Amino acid sequence: MSSAAGAQPAAAVSGWGPSDGLEFVAQIRQWGREFGFNAIGVGGIDLTDAEPGLMAWVEAGFHGDMDYMARHGLKRARAAELVPGTVRVISARMDYWPAAADAGAALADPQRAYVSRYALGRDYHKVLRARLQKLAERIAAAVPHQYRVFTDSAPVLEVEHASRNGLGWRGKHTLLLDRSAGSWFFLGEIFTDLPLPVDERLEPHCGRCTACIDACPTGAIVAPYRVDARRCISYLTIELQGAIPEALRPQLGNRIYGCDDCQLACPWNRFAQLSCEPDFAPRHRLDSATLVELFAWSAADFAERTAGSPIYRIGHERWLRNIAVALGNAPTTAAVLAALQARAQDDSAIVREHVAWALDRHGGAARG
C-alpha cells in the first residue's frame, strides 16, 4: 500500500463520529469532481455472497482463454487478501461518451470500421489511474491512510464493488447502470484502510427489459447477468489471441475492436452524459475511418497511431486479423478485394488465414 510520508495509521481516525465521517466523504466527492470524476461511492469489502457466482462462471469455462480469471480465483472478491489492511473501497466513475462519435452511423455503414466508443481516445487505464492516485494523495494529505489504486488493472470485482457503493446497479449485460448516466463510463477504485462511512446500495431498475440480451450479435449474454466471454465480440477482437471461430465471424460485422451493441440498446443510455474529458475525444479518425484505410496501416503506423491507446495492447497482427474479418463482411468492391489481396501473403499465418476466409466470402476472388 502507498501512504503519505510520516502517515499515522488509520486507527487514529477510527473514533470519528458519524458526522465527521460523512463530512469527510463529502469532501472526497468534491475533490473527485475536481479531478474529473462524475461520482464517488464508498463501501465495505465483504463480497462473500458474490463468490459462488464468480466460481460458477469460471467453472463453466465462460472466461475462455483469460486464464488469469481462474488463476486469481476468489482473490478477486477478497479485497483484504489482495491488499492487506483494506477496510473500505472507494469507487469512482468517469464518463467517456464522446460528443463527436455517432455509433449508429458507424455500425450502419459496412465499409466503415467500428471501434468501441471507450477506445476512441486515450487509454482509460492511464487517465483514471493518474487521477485516482492524485485523489488518494489528496485524501492522505488531509487524513493519512494506507491505499492502493486500481483501474481494471488487478483482480478486482469492479462492478460488484461499485454497485454496493451506491454508484448504480448491475444490468443484465453485467455492466453497471445509473439512472442519470446510463453505462458509458469507466470505473476505478481506491483500496484504503480508512474506516469511512459507507453508501447505501441502490435498487436495480431493469425490470422485464431484455433489450441488451436481444441486441447481442453473437448471443453472448446467455442469461440475465451471465455472459459467455467466448462468444462476446469484445473478447473475440481483444482478448482472444488465436483465430476467431469461423461460425462467429459473420456476426462481427464491421466491429474491429470491441462491441457496444448491448449498451446502445439499453434504454437507460438515453440519459448518458457527454464526456467533457479531452483525453477521451476520438483520435486518428477512429470514429469515421474506413476498413480499407485501417487495413493499410503498417506495423509502424499501428504503433505510432495507437500509442497511448487501449488498442495498442492487441498488436498489429490481431488488428489486421479483426479488420480482415470485417472486410469479409463488407460489400464486394474493387477497393475491398484489392486490400485483401495485398495481404494474402502476409508474414502472419493468422492474418493469411483470415484474409483467405474473407476472400472466400467474396466469391473466392483471386488472391494476389
UniProtKB/TrEMBL annotation:
It holds the Pfam family Fer4_16. Pathway: tRNA modification; tRNA-queuosine biosynthesis. Keywords: 4Fe-4S, Cobalamin, Cobalt, Cytoplasm, Iron, Iron-sulfur, Metal-binding, Oxidoreductase, Queuosine biosynthesis, tRNA processing. [4Fe-4S] cluster 1 binds at C206, C209, C212, C266. One of its GO terms (molecular function) is epoxyqueuosine reductase activity. It is found in: Cytoplasm. The keyword Aminoacyl-tRNA synthetase does not apply. SUPFAM superfamilies: 4Fe-4S ferredoxins. Monomer. HAMAP family: QueG (MF_00916). This is Epoxyqueuosine reductase. It comes from Thauera mechernichensis.
